[in-house]
Write a structure and sequence with these properties.
The protein is an alpha/beta fold. The chain has two domains: 61 residues, Alpha-Beta Plaits (2-Layer Sandwich); 250 residues, Aldolase class I (TIM Barrel), CATH 3.20.20.70. It contains twelve helices and 14 strands. An eight-stranded parallel barrel has the order 7-8-9-10-11-12-13-14, surrounded by six helices. Strand 9, helix 5 and strand 10 form a beta-alpha-beta unit. The protein is elongated and about 65 Å long. Bound molecules: phosphoenolpyruvate and manganese (II) ion. The site of phosphoenolpyruvate has 10 residues, from loops.
């Protein structure tokens, strides 16, 4: 249920409505729209909407028909913008996050970070705790990997995103990273999602390999209902009968999610295709379809990568892709970081 307050509702009226709903056993989440305060009311208690509508300062009470509430556009009509330093996610600029699948060595992390920065990425990606299908595959360097990633990100003035697989890793990752990434395999790890809801750091929630959009938004709801409003979604391909690509990247999920939810929407064309020769095409399609950002695997020497080498781009390929995206983005009213272009003198 959503309670829309009158334009000129006083603070006391808002507080009174909140207190009344809390007394009825509900959780209330406040969001400020363009001109009105909107209260998202969730919980298992029973509330008669007509009685709430009669309270002073209330404009109207709407039922949210979707099972997710705080993630829905009915609760919040305006796009959510997540700000971390000078990075604004969900605004006009398409934000590109890039880097290796895993942190392997200092040299590998540093040169990959320098390459993605040069091409215009704003956020370094890289895993230190890796969810591998086989227990015999490289599992990541743990805290040592986080240290490498943080110092490379600092050296290049990039933000850092890295995957959290388990609640026991939240504390250490929180020390190093700017954003938590929840991987496809953990999209329905509800204990982890609840715990991330208690943090105040932005979370990227990747779509599970067999999750419907509704299940995905319900998982986002777990984080939002804990009080962490900074959630971004990432389409990374789903499992279908098709075997020509590693996964089937659901490009249509972009306009569907953008209509249903106010949360920023990312696309991962690397895991979405599994092959670096297909990544560029899907990245261009994602930006054209309205994605708020991309997360792309780039490795300084992908043929020797310890994980996901086949889908990791060479720095030169990524550089060309960024140049192409700078042409596509303005066609749909968006931009992509122009800084490095100017630095290299292309813009003269
Ligand atoms: C990754 O980003 O390296 C990763 C493991 O992604 P996903 O959870 O989408 O498989
Ligand atoms: Mn990977």
């Amino acid at each position: 249920m959503v309670v829309v307050m009158k334009e000129r509702a006083s603070d006391e009226q808002v507080e009174h409505v909140i207190a009344h709903l809390v007394e009825l056993g509900m959780d209330v989440h406040r969001s400020s729209g363009a001109s009105r305060i909107v209260l998202g009311v969730v919980g298992s208690g029973k509330v008669d909407p007509r009685l709430i509508e009669l309270l002073d300062g209330v404009h109207e009470v709407l039922r949210i028909s979707e099972p997710y509430k705080l993630a829905s556009r009915t609760f919040k009509a305006e796009d959510t913008v997540i700000v971390s330093g000078d990075v604004r996610i969900g605004g006009d600029e398409v934000i590109v996050m890039a880097g290796p699948c895993s942190a392997e060595t200092e040299t590998q992390v540093n040169s990959s970070a320098a390459a993605v920065k040069r091409a215009g990425a704003k956020v370094l990606r890289g895993g230190a705790f890796k969810p591998r299908s086989s227990p015999y595959s490289f599992q990541g360097l743990g805290e040592q990997g986080l240290q490498m990633l943080r110092s490379a990100a600092n050296a290049q003035d990039l933000k850092l995103i890295t995957e959290v697989m388990d609640i026991s890793q939240i504390e250490v990752i929180d020390k190093y990273a700017d954003f938590f990434q929840v991987g496809a395999r953990n999209m329905q790890n509800f204990t982890l999602l609840r715990e991330l809801g208690r943090t105040r750091k932005p979370v990227m929630l990747k779509r599970g390999i067999s999750a419907t959009i509704e299940e995905w938004l319900l998982s986002a709801e777990y984080i939002l209902s804990g009080g962490n409003t900074q959630v971004m979604l990432c389409e990374r391909g789903i499992r279908t009968f098709e075997s020509a690509t590693r996964n089937t990247l659901d490009i249509s999920a972009i306009p569907v999610v953008k209509q249903l939810s106010h949360l920023p929407m990312f696309v991962d064309p690397s895991h979405g295709t599994g092959r670096r020769d297909k990544v560029g095409a899907m990245a261009r399609a994602a930006v054209a379809a309205g994605a708020d950002g991309l997360i792309i695997e780039v490795h300084c020497d992908p043929d020797r990568a310890l994980s996901d080498g086949a889908q990791s781009m060479f720095p030169g390929q990524f550089d060309r892709l960024m140049a192409e995206l700078r042409i596509i983005a303005p066609a749909i009213g968006r931009s992509i970081c122009l800084e490095p272009v100017a630095r290299r003198g292309w813009a003269r």
